[in-house]
Amino acid sequence: MLNTTGFMGKMITFLLLVTIPVAIVAFWLVTQGLLSFEYAILVALTPVGPAILIYNRLIKEMALLSQRMEHEAGAPLFGHLLPGSVRSGLLPVNDLLLAMQQYRRSMQTLFKEAKSHQEEALLLFNMLPEPVLVLDAKRRVSRFNLAAKSFFDSELTENDLTAYLRHPSLIKAVDAALSGEVEAKVVAFGMAGSVPRHIEAHVVKLPGEGGDELRVILTLHDQTVAKKTEQMRVDFVANASHELRTPLAILIGAIETLQGPASKDPSAQGRFLSMMHAQSRRMSQLIDDLLSLSQIEMNEHARPSDSVDMTDVLQGVVNLIKAKATDLGKNLVLEMPENEVTVSGDKDQLFQIFTNLIDNALKYGKEKSAVTISLDKQDKEVSISVKDEGEGIPPEHLPRLTERFYRVDSDRSREMGGTGLGLAIVKHIVSRHRGNLEIDSELGKGSSFTIRLPA
Ligand code: ADP
Question: Which segments of 4-92 does DSSP mark as H helices, in order?
């Protein structure tokens, strides 16, 4: 609303401003004898009437303008604009109103742009694959992205960080960043849970402009898989060295004996040489297995596409291993259809799977027992099982049998010439063929290893 306080005073000032110059001229004319005093008063008062009219008109137009401006200023930014023009008068009211509406339109554009930038920033923040938390000056979570929400499996309300992460070295690093002692710090810590996790947290102090709400940004990197892989690599090197060291130590011992005490004893020499032969074979087998494992792993992503007849593969393995079975007093039973059963695969690798499985069945089967290999073709898959009549495998070992160097009974495996890599090789070949391996075992009765391959 237009402020009308002192209206009369202002009008009188306006009238005086208009009439005084006219009165001065009129009374000067009187002094010159060109005008009588009465006429001079009349002339001096002539502008009063029009001045009052003009003043009133101006006040009305100003009131209208002020009313419209107040409306524009108070209306929501995206509300309707009032129809443009008003009746024109002494002031350029319409021009002023147009300028005001123009200003409002620019504000709307600016606002839209700012909003879309804000939405883009939020989208980017939410799409970051790593959990990100922003902390305020009081160490409370003021912002978090979607990855953080799924990491903690909950909404992060404005709680102190310790409600979600309590590790002392992390809290210390955050406090140091909040107090300005450090700009950035990386802290690694473990998180207990159904699956323990290894986390690497990057704590970074934000520059001051963010205000109290945005003080520290915390990015969490889940290193569990990397840590596990690293551990597996370390274990693998340790296991492989250990496996090689044992036969190597026996070989060195045998060579020293041959050079010393047994140098003139032909019967001892014979015994030591055959021991050395066995240990060399063991090392060579281990290296072969290690090499084939790394080769299979290298190609695991590339599914083989040759058409392979499984009856041919199984017959080939049985022919190769028959002599060993006979030596061990075991009976190999092959049950399969007469027709071809084809799968897409790599013939050599499929041959290796069944050599390993049948060899294990012979090694771990009871004396004079049978090993049954059966091939079955269903609509969409071909299944081949190798069944023995051995001691069986305690259930707690079943999930770990395909790990490298995992053995239920290490001494027995080594005694039988096993490397502990056979089933790991089987697992990787099966996975390259997009198939699966099932192990069933009953203590005292035997075990069965079933491979299912897409037909
Ligand atoms: P290994 O060379 O020791 O036989 P594998 O990887 O082939 O290594 O097998 C891992 C372990 O699984 C063996 O040491 C053995 O303890 C167990 N195992 C494998 N096959 C059988 C089976 N048919 N019966 C009983 N135990 C078996």
Answer: 7-31, 37-45, 48-74
